[in-house]
Amino acid sequence: MSKKQKIRELDKKFIWHPFTQMKDYEKNGHIVIERARKFQLFDDQENSYYDTISSWWTNLFGHGEKKIINAVKKQLGKLEHVNFSGFTHPPAAELVSKLYSLLPQPLCRFFFSDNGSTAVEAALKIAFQYWHNRGQKQKNCFIMLKNAYHGDTLGAVSTGGLDYHRLFQPLLFKTFMAEPPDCSKCRFRKSAYTFDSLQNGCSLECFNSIEEIIKKHHHEAAAVIIEPLLQCAGGMKVYPPAYINRLSK
Fold it and tell me: Under CATH, which number does the domain 116-248 receive?
């Protein structure tokens, strides 16, 4: 058995791939990616593919960028990891200084996480603990948007609104779901949104849904959670900036 064949057999025998119908996957030929450069992926047959989704939205700068590789090598030679509970290190402090300069007030604290789902979990826990510490223990629910996607851990699924997570409903905590804005298919029959202004008399009727929920359930809601700028998995629906501004107020 060749090395390439062995890789396929090991994958088929031991690996459970996410978001994959494994029965179909096992019947069809596997694509084994061996290397990548910039925006292209290359398999073990030297076929090339365009990485048009940035490896599931995680590779923002392309593959094999020498500047990034050299920076990682340099850091690994000095310090690869340290317990962040009670310790810090120069790269962390320098990074938050740069991030702080880019963010609006009053955003001034940073909590590090290693992926999107656990970042959402941490944010939910922080919001809950904030109200708990202030003596408002009844604020233990969250307000979210229909068709939202925040990840695949249980807290992220609880605050998401996609049908394919319905199986896990018995495990999820209580939320209040609002209708999301969708300027491309406005349910109030207003014209398509332009990024600079609200056209044809639009008065953000799409905001009414979440506003009513906030008014009704603010006493038990710990936070409102939305995807920044647009819903991705829900259909690439861009929020009007005015919607975000009004929600923040």
Answer: 3.40.640.10
